[in-house]
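FAQ: What does a multi-protein file look like?

Like this. Sequence, then tokens, then the next protein.
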Amino acid sequence: MYHLDVTLTRAINGLAGGSAAFDALMIWTSRIGVPLLVLAVALRWWRGADRRHSRHVLVAAGLTFLLGLFLNQIIVHLVHRVRPYDAGVSRLLIERSADVSFPSDHATATVAIAAAFLLHGTRRMGLAFGLAALLVCFSRIYVGTHYAGDVLGGALTAVLAALLVARLYTEGTRLDRIVTGIL
């Protein structure tokens, strides 16, 4: 499995350096992708015809995002994977990270948003966020900071978090009505 992970990582990261414009796009996506997605979610708070349902989905996305990153913090204490650039697998295009490689927080954060939208019946937005998440995930491998398996692990953490939130945070409950009625 490690061999496949290294092969995929090298294949994607090996594209780096072929085009200065594409390198710049991937660096920008890697740096700003998560904040842009969070902003896109936050701005939806005041939009939509079915405001209660829309806000429920937004709260679920936020909870999924937070739960996914919390789960990652547990995982990093159990798995101490060296970054691919430190193992000689990838060439780094951005600054070095101070933490371990597995799982990718960027993948968790972006996939969490997409998964929450999809699981709560907002298919069109979920697919749009899913495409953005794929781009961010790809960029993290492209810039050399993650193995492909790190990104997959982060995505799986996000899906688990989304499933838990969908099960535990039910639309129409008293708590949901209070939270979605704010502003």
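And here is the next protein:
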Amino acid sequence: MATNPHDWLNEHGDYLYRFALARLRNPHQAEDVVQETLLAAIKNPNYAAQSSPRTWLTGILKHKIIDCMRKQVREIPASELLTEEDANMDEFFDNTGHWAEKPVAWDIPQDALQQKQFLQILQQCMTRLPQKLAAIFTMRDVDEMENEEICKALNITATNAWVMLYRARMGLRKCLEMHW
């Protein structure tokens, strides 16, 4: 691994782009945050080779992604949070609020996630979610960020975060049960 900043784009650019694209789901935004990351890294002389350049660049990229998500959260109207699929969530529950039919138990989630077909279906389902819901799901369940950290990053309340996470999970569950 090169520690020369001029080699970082060639050696780490593709990885950083894929990392950003998986979280932002927008090729243009992913390119922008990778460029901002590399620019910030070149301007910041604090890289002391205590970790690999890729690890250091990924840390910067994570902050740039959060900044981008914050901007999106501020700019998306609240009316876009509720999708048609959200309105149909009652079908999963009976009159007492319990599951009408319990969710299908997957064998071993780690094994299922490793299957290429499952990842493709999951990615398709993620693209069907509203941007904010996909972002909060990724932050919580993929990146394993704490709720407090997510609320701070997106500038939302804890209650709003849990509602959004619930909607994201229900939307993904419905989509995965239909397509997987």
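Q: Is there any per-entry metadata?
A: Some entries carry free-text notes. For the entry above: The domain at 5-75 is CATH 1.10.1740 (Rna Polymerase Sigma Factor; Chain: A).
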